[in-house]
# Entry
Amino acid sequence: MKIEFSPTRPAGLRLIAHIVDKGKHPDGLERTLAEGASEARFEGRAGQLFDSFVERDGSVVRIALAGAGERSSDKRQQGLERAGAALAAKFMSAGVETIGLDASGLSAEELVSVLLGLRLRSWRWDVHRTTMKEDQKVHLKTVTVFNAAEGGTSAWENGAALAAGIEFTRELVSEPANVIYPESFVARVRERFEGMGAEITVLDEAAMHELGMGSLLGVGQGSRRESRLLAIRWNGGTPGDAPTAFVGKGVTFDTGGISIKAGPGMEDMKWDMGGGGAVAGAMLALVGRKAKANIVGVIGLVENMPDGDAIRPGDILTSMSGKTIEVLNTDAEGRLVLADALHWVQVTHKPARIVDFATLTGAMIVALGNEHAGLFSNDNTLAGQLTKAGEESGDALWRFPLSAAYDRLIDSPIADMKNIGGKGAGSITAAQFLQRFIMDKTPWAHCDIAGMVWADKPGQTWGKGATGYGVRLMDRFIADTVE
Ligand code: BES
Ligand code: ZN
Ligand code: ZN
# Structure
């Protein structure tokens, strides 16, 4: 969908939208519209929508009122996004190609929120559908904004970069595993970042073997697809300043390996690269808006398959750090991938702080459902900054504990550690495992996003399917604490 700005109200618009704060009808509305809205109990609650037809300048036009909630609400931004999203949900497949958005009364910042909601909610991935009915297709092509506040157009440039990042994440997550596998993931990233000024490094299996990445390579060993390590580096900050590192789990399909998963729902494991997808999308957003920060995004890309070459329960792997791992369950593979990705980023980029994103444990969904991602950290300041960025961006986080007692649960009698703990605290023992690969007390945080990557029903600014969780969190975190 395209967003255009027009200095005056364009002629010939068939649908015009107004954003309405709770309890405040815009001035100058036709009587039928104003009375119709209150008759229909439209009060401007966030996400509420009313539409009707009126006669203007001799022709019939459709007017939509989209509610943004209380003006003074601390959830103002979300309210405005929901107003935009409500317009998209209602009109994306309604046969309308253009919505005229009357931005009177909105500040530049408020307008950006409305447009973001519109754009995110109207995103769909229909490339694999060849037989869609007319009323299923997305017809909405353009939103033409008029009466925009001064600075609205340039403010939207940053909003558009963020939207593009979220959409890229959703695309990667939506694609099935026969389309997105380690090499094709890398190819899509290369294509998207072409000419943007980011530095892209890719390690193939031979290069990773050379570096001793036995942990990551062990996971990919049963797959016909070659594994990859992908790094996207952006130097937008002071030269020489240590970068912030984002690290993502990019398991392009997780069968469980020899510890194979049950059949029902296994298709969900196409989105086991959701952490890596979020890192790629966040990098696209940050590079797209030329963030004034040094950042590196690292993604460990593997496919976890059962095969004659696959690793077995009981096998011992040697990671790049030299630490050895007894693999007791080949389905606890994400941590094996991250172990080498985390070690590599520390020795190669010497980051000031590390935040990783992974669909790491089913236990995280048991604990938090689909409302918060789990946060684990060795640093209270970093944890606080991330929690705050989560609240502000809507990508919510909830912190869990780490301790020596939990750490002991992954000691192995035969190697330095085992890749699973006992019955309880599955998400925490997974985080303890990752922590063993963090050197010199570098501030580090792990976000277990297993419950956040995919939605079974439409949400505030997403339809069913990939949510793009994590992109806004990283973007906001960089803006608040690094820039
Ligand atoms: N990718 C899964 C975790 C997952 C499960 C994410 C469901 C999203 C939805 C991960 O690799 C995994 O299989 N973890 C195991 C760990 C266990 C073997 C210790 C799990 O959670 O069951
Ligand atoms: Zn697994
Ligand atoms: Zn997995």
The chain has two domains: 2-150, 177-481. The mean pLDDT is 97. The longest helix spans residues 152-174.
